[in-house]
Amino acid sequence: MPRFPAGQTLLIDADDTLWENNIYFERAIAGFISFLDHKTHSNAEVRRALNAVERETILAHGYGLPSFTRSLVECFERLSPAPVTEDKREQVRSFARTISEQEIELLPGVKETLAELSGRHQLILMTKGDHAEQADKLARSGLAPYFAAVEIAAEKDPPTYRAVIARHELAPHTSWMIGNSPKSDINPALAAGLHAVFLFHKDTWVLEHATLDVAPEGQHLIELDSFAKLATLF
Predict the structure, then answer these.
(1) How far apart are CA 23 and CA 66, in angstroms?
(2) Are 182 and 169 spatial neighbours (Cβ–Cβ below 8 Å)?
(3) InterPro entries, per this entry (predicted)?
(4) Please, what CATH class does the domain formed by 22-101 belong to?
(5) The pTM is what?
(6) Among 3.40.50.1000, 3.20.20.70, 2.70.70.10, 1.20.1250.20, what is the CATH number of 9-19+104-232?
(7) Which end of the chain, C or N, has fewer beta carbons within 10 A?
C-alpha cells in the first residue's frame, strides 16, 4: 500500500534518475586524461583543473554536450605542455562525440514504475540542460507518454521551481521533486516549498554534489536507493 494517496504531482529529473548519463561523461574524461598524458600533473590534478574549466564554461554557455566539448578543448589548451594543433583539438572533441553516440540506457525499473505511477499521479519531467539535447533524449527513451508536461530549464534553482509551481498551479503540500542531485533536485526544491525524494546514484556528476539540506517543518525529504521503490511511496 503506497504511503501517500493518489493525486500527488511528481516532478521527476531525467539524467541519472531515469537513464544513465554521467558514466558516459566519465569515460570521455578518462580518455581525455589519458590522451593528455601530463608528465607533472597527476590524473586527479587534471580532473580538478577540468572541473574548474567546466564551472567557467557553464556560466558562459550553460549545460550540454557543446559546453562539455568546449571545456575539454579549453582544458587541453591550458595544460598541454606541447603546442596544440588542430588535429589534437579534433582528437579531444572526439571524446565528447562518443557521448552523443550512446543509446539511452534506462535505469532498473524505470519504465514499469513510471507506468504504475502515471496511473495514480500527475508526472512532470523536470530536467535542466540544452533544450534540444534533453528533448531528444526523452523522445529516444520512449518515456514521454508517461508525462503530463515537460520542463527543461537552463538551471534548477529555487526561482525556477517557484515558476514551475506557479505555471502548473501546483499545491506544494502534494507536490514532490524526485532526483539524484542534491544541488539541483533536492535542496532548491525544498527551498521552493516542495517535498523531495533523493534517489542515490553512485555516479552522480561531481559538480552536482552537495550536502542534503534538512527539510523545513511540514515538508518531507525521503531517501531511496532505487527508482522502483517510488511505487511503495506513491
Answers:
(1) 17
(2) no
(3) HAD-like_hydrolase, HAD-like_sf, HAD_sf, PGP-like_dom2
(4) mainly alpha
(5) 0.89
(6) 3.40.50.1000
(7) N
